[in-house]
Amino acid sequence: MKIKGLIFDLDGVLVFTDKFHYQAWKTMADELGVYFDETINHRLRGVSRMDSLEIILERYEGPDLSLREKEKLAEKKNEIYRTLLESMTPDDVTKEVRDTLTKLREKGYKLAIGSSSKNAKFILEKVELKDAFDAISDGNNITKSKPDPEVFLKAAEYLGLPPKACMVVEDAEAGIEAAKKGGMYAAGIGEAAKSINADESLKIFSELVDIVDK
User: Fold this and answer.
1) Is 9 a catalytic residue?
2) Active-site choice (11, 92, 148, 171)
3) Given phi > 0 = left and psi -120 to 50 = alpha, else beta, which region is 148?
4) pTM
């Protein structure tokens, strides 16, 4: 079936907020006395907030934490993160990304966000990109994070398209795996361009315009 819709991960594909995630998790980890570095942060890409916290707590040696205490830690991290996000502007989205999204819409493709982040809408508003999408599936409407395909399947549902008519654009292996599990075409960019599971490997974002017309 011909591709009729594209579903984009947000962080690392359309915008780059890794530095903010890292700063927020590092602040929280330092307060807990837990070692945290860029390598550990890399493991959190595409992973839900609570699952990310569990990865960080692998090195935690303090008293056992209750679920509520863990939820408070995750909430605190998000408060720090959202404060850092306040500095984002439309300049944080490249002209290449904006132009490519415009061209895809002009060609008649439906566009959606498929992100595990609960801050997706907030980020899209800050960078003035929310109106570029027909649907948004994010951490607020899913119960399972990638590599489970739920976030992408919801996005396809919101677009009114069958999964096999959708292409997912991802920068993380977990996202590529989720796309394939959901029966979708997967295009990898950044780190995910190296994935053996990706159907397409993008060197630059604008390549999408030619790929979808194959």
Assistant:
1) yes
2) 11
3) beta
4) 0.86
Amino acid at 95: K
Kindly report the three-state secondary structure assignment for every residue of the chain.
CCCCEEEECCECCCECCHHHHHHHHHHHHHHHCCCCCHHHHHCCCCCCHHHHHHHHHHHCCCCCCCHHHHHHHHHHHHHHHHHHHCCCCHHHCCHHHHHHHHHHHHCCCEEEEECCCCCHHHHHHHCCCHHHCCEEECCCCCCCCCCCCHHHHHHHHHHCCCHHHEEEEECCHHHHHHHHHCCCEEEEEHHHHHCCCCCEEECCHHHHHHHCCC
Quick: pLDDT tens for 52-111.
Answer: 999 999 999 999 999 999 999 999 999 999 999 999 999 999 999 999 999 999 999 999
